[in-house]
Amino acid sequence: MDATYRAEPPDQIIRENLGAIDALYHRRSGATHLVAAPVPQILDALAEGPADLDGLMARLAARFDLGEGGDAARQALGERLAELVALGLVRDDRPAD
Amino acid sequence: MSEGSRPDPQDAPGPDAVSGQSGGASRRQMLRLGAAAGAVVLTVRPGIAQAATSVLSCEIPVPDPARASQAVAPDGTMVPKGSTGAFPGGRTFTGEQVRTGLRGGNLPGTSYEESQAYLNYVRRLQHGRSGFTCYASLMMPR
Amino acid sequence: MRHRIGLAVGPATFRIGSAWRAPIDALERLYAAYPPVDLDRRVPDFTVRLQPTRPWRRLIRPSIAIAGDHMLPDAAPMALDHGLLAAEMGMNLQMALGWRRHVLLHASCVERDGKALVITGESGSGKSTLAAMLGERGWRLMGDEFALLDPVAGTVFAFPRLVSLKNQAIEVATAGLPPERLGPRLEGTAKGTIRHLVPPVEAIARMAEPAIPRLLLLPRFGFAEAHRPVEQGEAFVRLTEASTNYLALGETGFRALTRFVREVPAVALDYPDSATVLAAVEALWSEVA
């Protein structure tokens, strides 16, 4: 069963736009991250509420043109989410096996 | 900085990709989910070691004073004094000298084998040993 | 300790203690125009101690270990002849590790008409030399090593310590200046030959005055002249790399530096020689000020 991804609480991440990139300050870790598309868009989509990978794909597809190749896009999204989970910017409520 | 490459300004979203509000056109803006040129997240790393240690030169004792009664084996580990093939240590090198050594030069006043033994010792330094901070600052990028 | 002096540089005050007389004598001469600090009446922000590596090393093959409120492990001891340099390094270290009232930028800074030009770059980029030369050509020198960014007001405060000039830059930056403004030539330091320059009297007198940052310059010495605007994201990365206390300041530091790069344009400038960079700075400044 897929993981459920969950955004950090809304007051945890401060975002400032710096032109082509966004700067994020993560209060819980004290870390500063500089991010480019698609990260801010993924975080915004997740802010609507927890979702699994397919659910998140659907939210993004409703707002943006994700191009061709549904599987490639889905895999890419999975990779982005894994990176964000590793940094603590997204939570991964993986159900116990 | 961090190991991932920075988001390249050249890869900034083009005019029809996502950068702000859409203008109400029926076609949605493009969002590319793949990471074309390396990581899309760059995490700020401490500048302290780089900025503060550029202010002072640092040094690395080989071995650290707590182990002065031992000798340095060719692989950089500590062995009893008098062990075959081991070197006495008792030297202190500056960060600059060690940096040169790590790039292929010899540490001053040593033969090739002795220099390699001491450099292997430095490579094995752990947090808490004398010289570790100096070595760590050498290893930081830039 | 046997010998001591109190110093004020910008908003910070220091007690410098020394086991030897000579470094204190040098500091007394070169800091003569700075406001006095009476150590019997006030507690300084930081203490720096120039002490022997072992008790007998005060007299036998004397060698200075730099100590103080904030210290770096593994710091190499220094020759007694370089005592002035040791004291300056000790003060820099206190600021780099201990100052929290401002975001500390490893940058030089000059001011004109209440507006600041902030110059950031690695060692060897020429930022100290450039600031020293601009300070002799109508700009107020605010500092050659640190610029202090007020996280609330967004203004920049001065830290006009003795300017540290190295190697070839010494002749270039000090030509024609009177000897009383110069420290001793210190040869054989880790960075080559170093000579200190006392900032102009007006720079010292006005060291408490802040300025509004108007241009961030990222110079590179030794290249054909060229310049390009620097995007906000890149400027932000360069500034966080240049700040020793950015992480320690947490959210305050984040807001201060994001605001800075949004409000202050940044330009990368390559230059081959001092005449070129001085002209280029005036041209770039006229576009923003």
Query: What is the overall number of helices of chain A?
Result: 3
What is the residue-averaged pLDDT of chain A?
90
The value of Rg of chain B in angstroms is 24 Å
Amount of beta strand of chain A = 25-35%
Write the layout of secondary structure elements.
The complex is a heterotrimer of chains A (97), B (142) and C (289).
Chain A: E1 4-7, E2 13-18, E3 21-26, E4 31-35, H1 39-47, H2 53-63, H3 70-87, E5 90-93
Antiparallel strand pairs in A: 1-5, 2-3, 3-4
Chain B: E1 41-43, H1 48-53, E2 59-62, E3 70-72, E4 78-80, E5 91-94, H2 95-102, H3 112-123, H4 132-139
Antiparallel strand pairs in B: 2-5, 3-4
Chain C: E1 3-9, E2 12-18, H1 21-30, E3 46-52, E4 63-68, E5 78-79, H2 83-98, E6 103-112, E7 115-120, H3 127-135, E8 140-143, E9 146-149, E10 156-157, E11 163-166, H4 168-174, E12 186-189, E13 192-197, H5 201-205, E14 212-221, E15 226-230, H6 232-242, H7 246-263, E16 266-271, H8 274-288
Parallel strand pairs in C: 2-3, 7-14, 14-16
Antiparallel strand pairs in C: 1-2, 3-4, 4-5, 6-7, 6-8, 6-9, 9-10, 11-13, 12-13, 15-16
Structure explained in plain terms:
The complex is a heterotrimer of chains A (97), B (142) and C (289). Chain A is an alpha+beta fold and 97 residues long. Chain A has helices at 39-47, 53-63, 70-87; strands spanning 4-7, 13-18, 21-26, 31-35, 90-93. Chain A has one domain (4-90). Chain A has a three-stranded antiparallel β-sheet with strand order 2-3-4, with no helix packed on it. Chain A has a two-stranded antiparallel sheet with strand order 1-5. The model of chain A has no long low-confidence stretch (mean pLDDT 90). Chain B contains four helices and five strands. Chain B has a two-stranded antiparallel sheet with strand order 2-5. Chain B has a two-stranded antiparallel ribbon with strand order 3-4. The longest helix of chain B has 12 residues, at 112-123. The termini of chain B are close together. Helices cover 31% and strands 31% of the residues of chain C. Chain C contains eight helices and 16 strands. Chain C has helices spanning 21-30, 83-98, 127-135, 168-174, 201-205, 232-242, 246-263, 274-288, and strands at residues 3-9, 12-18, 46-52, 63-68, 78-79, 103-112, 115-120, 140-143, 146-149, 156-157, 163-166, 186-189, 192-197, 212-221, 226-230, 266-271. In chain C, the strands form three sheets. In chain C, strands 6, 7, 8, 9, 10, 14, 15 and 16 form an eight-stranded mixed β-sheet that branches. In chain C, strands 1-2-3-4-5 form a five-stranded mixed β-sheet, with helices on one face. In chain C, a hairpin with a 2-residue loop joins strand 1 and strand 2 (12-18). Chains in contact: A-B, A-C, B-C. At the B-C interface, helix 1 and helix 4 of B face helix 2 and helix 6 of C. Strand 4 (31-35) of chain A pairs antiparallel with strand 1 of chain B, so a sheet runs across the interface.
